[in-house]
Design goal:
eight-stranded parallel β-sheet; 29% helix; globular; binds 1-deoxynojirimycin
Length: 565
């Protein structure tokens, strides 16, 4: 080997080693955590967050203008529901161009400014990648539909009917009716798990896979820190199109119930997630999954056998504990905590009735909203908030079918009223339309905005917002709350949910009264390695206090304390 070649090779080796070393040090901090493990995430439904041009629909400039608010609140990353060009049949979840911004929300330049302002304020951007389907207006589908020989024909799932006028099999769209739509031009059916305007992409086609992976690369280069992957359960279907078993009864849309074993959660999903993860790792990015798992084994699988799939599969099983039940919560947390990955807790989103209504008892909703915030934001794992949750925003459901915007609410009315109620504009102040827009917003704000808004609640130390802010401060500053292990305490207590978060000899105790009557809880922390300790309050409701290790709590009271030796 000539000296020159040897020298070049050595330099290359040193260079690649140091690049690798930088990537490694960049992704883990001194305490061994990745950035997303420390982060509090916040979902923004862009139509409803802030309307900078007063056309009744939110936009990216609006989001940028609220970065200081997000920073002060204690948000580290925002997940923006789809803001790409879209005919808006499913309000953005029908994408007609994966690499652009819908003019209704602004431009790519606005996007870049948002990323830049986010950087200044310490707020990262996570986009919502609709991986299962595109819009029927995407050029890929327009081409696919044009003829059986079209270059993009096999980018979607086309099949002959079973018999004249009959779809290929009995698969049902989750939004109602058959999951197959007949196209008179080529006389075949195409498959759509969601609306007919959302044709499923054919992930068995390597060209589709390449295009989608390239899209993620394109956004990473633009400064995105990760993706929330939409509807990952539905990426693959049985190529033999086996009928799903029919179950008793009908669903809210009036279709027969079926067990979707042949068109959901197929093992091939995991191959795609591994590939998406490989690309994400090159940019130190995070993948959050919309994973509707029905048991803990399914959730475990989404992390990947070698931490090589989703870093953050969302645990929606937590949200199915829809009542304030310490035993149920304990069971669920214990399972998720032992699943081997980093837990992810969510209590509301744009598809679910707001947590304020779901957990509220109709009389103590504010106290319960504070309690729920103090609860899931102090668990081990990442939390994903939903805009307005920090205010105790309530659902504002449509009262008449003609007011419904969400298509499933129109086809399913009155059994299924749709998701408008949880998507109403963010409530900023007491001005018209809650300060969201000068023009009538696309969805109405509820009358309660007069007291439940950022401006008013910021001035009230006892507001839901103030409680969220206090909890978010300690969550960022107390290492035990970020990095500490989770140990359930007093597991027989049916009213007080309590646990210890401990890290390197330090601990935080959380005690939450999930009942409407005053409660006292005694803690024996000696067997947890904390003998003769005192409890020093970090965040508490006005009447919560401790005498030694005995904690008294008012109805729905909160007591979060440092355990001092
Ligand atoms: C899940 C999204 O959260 C929901 O809003 C959407 O309608 C479906 N996926 C289809 O994309």
């Amino acid at each position: 080997m000539s000296q020159r070649i040897f020298l070049t090779l050595s330099i290359q080796l040193i260079l690649s080693f140091s690049i690798f070393a930088t990537a490694q040090t960049k992704s883990v901090d001194a305490e061994g955590l990745k950035w997303w493990q420390r982060a509090v995430f916040y979902e923004i439904y862009p139509r409803s967050f802030a309307d900078s041009n007063n056309d009744g629909v939110g936009d990216l400039k609006g989001i940028t203008s609220k970065m200081p608010y997000l920073h002060d609140l204690g948000v580290d990353a925002i997940w923006i529901s789809p803001c790409f060009p879209s005919p808006q049949v499913d309000f953005g979840y029908d994408v007609s161009d994966y690499e652009n911004i819908d003019p209704m929300y602004g431009t790519l330049a606005d996007f870049d400014s948002m990323v830049a302002e986010g950087k200044k304020q310490g707020v990262r951007i996570i986009l919502d990648f609709v991986v299962n389907h595109s819009s029927d207006q995407h050029p890929w589908f327009i081409n696919s539909k044009s003829s059986k020989a079209a270059p993009h024909r096999d980018w979607f799932i086309w099949r002959d009917g079973k018999a004249p006028g009959q779809p290929p099999n009995n698969w049902i769209s989750t939004f109602g009716g058959s999951a197959w739509k007949f196209d008179p031009v080529t006389k075949q059916y195409y498959y759509h798990y969601f609306y007919a305007e959302q044709p499923d992409l054919n992930w068995r086609n390597p060209a589709v896979e390449k295009a989608m992976l390239d899209t993620t690369r394109w956004w990473y280069k633009r400064g995105v820190s990760g993706f929330r992957l939409d509807a990952v359960d539905t990426l693959f279907e049985d190529p033999k199109l086996t009928d799903n078993p029919v179950l008793p009864g009908i669903n809210k849309q009036g279709d027969p119930n079926t067990d979707e074993i042949h068109n959901k959660k197929l093992p091939e999903v995991h191959d795609v997630l591994k590939k998406l993860r490989k690309v994400a790792d090159e940019s130190d990015a995070v993948l959050i999954g919309e994973t509707w798992t029905s048991n803990i084994d399914e959730l475990k699988e989404y992390y990947g056998s070698h931490d090589n799939e989703l870093q953050m599969p969302m645990d929606f099983m937590f949200t199915t504990v829809d009542k304030l039940s310490p035993p149920e919560f304990r069971r669920q947390i214990a399972q998720v905590d032992s699943a081997g990955g980093w837990p992810v807790f969510v209590i509301s989103n744009h598809d679910k009735v707001r947590s304020y209504n779901r957990y509220g008892d109709g009389k103590n909703n504010d106290a319960i909203a504070k309690l729920m915030g103090a609860f899931y934001l102090t668990l081990r794992g990442s939390a994903i908030m939903y805009y307005g949750e920090e205010l105790g925003m309530e659902n504002n459901d449509p009262k008449r079918k003609e007011d419904v915007k969400d298509p499933i609410g129109r086809t399913g009315w009155p059994n299924e009223i749709g998701r408008d109620g949880e998507r109403t504009p963010m409530q900023w102040n007491t001005e018209t339309n809650a300060g969201f827009s000068k023009k009538n917003p696309w969805l109405p704000v509820p009358p309660s905005y007069k007291t439940r808004n950022v401006a008013t609640e910021s001035k009230d130390p006892n507001s839901v917002l103030s409680m969220y802010k206090k909890v978010l401060v300690i969550r960022h500053t107390n290492e035990a709350l970020v990095n500490g292990s989770y140990t359930a305490l007093n597991e027989d207590d049916a009213n007080v949910m309590s646990y210890l978060r401990s890290y390197k000899g330090k601990a935080v105790l959380v005690a939450l009264n999930m009942s409407a009557s005053p409660q006292t809880a005694n803690f024996n922390l000696a067997d947890k390695g904390f003998a003769s300790v005192t409890l020093k309050s970090l965040v508490a409701t006005p009447q919560a206090s401790a005498k030694g290790t005995e904690v008294s709590l008012e109805p729905f009271g909160i007591f979060i304390a440092e355990v001092s030796k």
